[in-house]
Each structure stands twice: as C-alpha cells, then as structure tokens.
Design goal:
single chain; seven-stranded mixed beta sheet; alpha/beta
Length: about 230
C-alpha cells in the first residue's frame, strides 16, 4: 500500500525520461512484456478497454495496436505523465484516480494495468474498482514485477537495490524514486498471493504467467457472470 501523494510527486518528477529509463533498465524486455498483455487482450476481441495507471501510455498504445477496432481509454492520476501519453497520439485520455474511477458499472470488456497496481493506496480497493467497471465475463490483465525463480533471485536483488537506482538516478536525476521501486516490488503480492488477492476482490479463476524467469508476471482474471434464477 502506497502514499498517493508521494507516488504522484515521484512520477511527475521522472515523467520526461520515464520511457527511456524503462527501456534501458529492462534491456528493452518491457516492450515484449507489454506485447504479451496486448496479445492476451486481442484474443478476447474487446470493444472497450480501460488501461489504468497508463502513465506515458506504453501499454495503452500496445493494446490499441493489437485491437484496432477497440475503444481504448487510458487513465492515470498523474497529469504530467499523461502529457507524454498525449504526445503518443492516444485520443482518449482521462485524469482519474484508480481508487475512484469516473466510469459507470460494467462499461468495459477488458481492463489492463501495467506496473500500476503496486503503486495504489489500497490493492484490494483498486481491484474492486476494476471489477466494478468491467462487464460480467470481462477480463482483467495485470502486468507487474514479481519474485523471480530462486536461481535468479540473489542476482536480481543486487540489481534491484544497487544497480537500478544508480543507473536510473543518472538517467532521470531522481534516484529516490527508483529506490522506492525496489521496496515496493519486495512488498508487493506475487504469484499465488496475487491470484488470491484478485479472487478475493471480485474475480475468479485468476492465474499467473511468469515472464522472463519470473522477474515480471502477467495475471489474468475474469469477472464472474452471475446467472439470474
């Protein structure tokens, strides 16, 4: 659970070089992760998609490219980040807090969120909001960092807590924002803990798909269809 004031300030500070930092720090693998999310979305042929915590619009752009017939709405609570999404040509941008979305119940076929749930003030509350705006049978796709396989974990923690903040500080001038990143990843639910969280707050049959040795994971969940008696 995170302090929204700190999160908004941190992302506003790194907004100008956020995309560059992501690509450098991940070695470009983050592009492949987002394409995997977009492919999962495309398989469901959604007509209306919400990309929550869109930031600079990387995931929303990937989803829009994979689902050319869909309306993709991109939302984030940090306006400076969304200025960069606007420059990408995303036409449907909304400044909105993920804890209180300004959308009616059941209006989206799919909700995507990349590296954003981890920054919410209340994970369960945010998941319930995503479930609320999804139609019954709609799909939630959550992409975020997770705990990698044991053979990779030691090296990964050295990179996460020592190398990443130093390199990111040089790229963005905001080392503190990336020191926060390491702590937020370590405390974030991962694997079965994440699927249990999703299933406890409005979804069912949640499953996790480890990516790149488990450095990141894609979680796929569906909002149950309630049959009328």
């Amino acid at each position: 659970m995170q302090d929204p004031r700190f999160v908004r300030k941190a992302f506003a500070a790194i907004a100008p070089r956020y995309v560059l930092a992501n690509h450098v720090l991940s070695g470009g693998i983050d592009v492949l992760w987002r394409r995997r999310v977009a492919a999962e979305a495309r398989a469901r042929q959604p007509q209306r998609v919400l990309d929550l915590a869109t930031g600079s619009g990387d995931l929303a752009s990937a989803v829009a490219a994979a689902c050319p017939g869909a309306l993709v709405v991109a939302a984030d609570f940090c306006a400076p980040m969304m200025e960069h999404a606007q420059r990408r040509g995303l036409p449907h941008l909304v400044v909105a807090d993920g804890m209180a979305l300004p959308f009616a119940d059941g209006v989206f076929d799919a909700v995507t969120i990349g590296f954003g749930l981890r920054n919410m003030a209340d994970y369960g509350g945010a998941v319930r909001e995503m479930a609320r705006v999804l139609r019954p049978g709609g799909c939630l796709l959550v992409l975020d960092f997770s705990r990698p396989a044991p053979w990779l974990r030691g090296l990964y923690r050295v990179y996460l807590h020592r190398v990443l903040p130093a390199v990111a500080g040089l790229l963005t001038g905001e080392r503190g924002a990336y020191e926060y990143l390491g702590g937020s990843i370590e405390s974030f639910p991962s694997g079965p803990a994440m699927t249990a969280l999703l299933d406890a707050h409005g979804f069912s049959g949640s499953r996790g798909i480890p990516l790149t040795g488990g450095i990141a994971s894609l979680y796929v969940a569906e909002k149950p269809v309630h049959r009328q008696s």
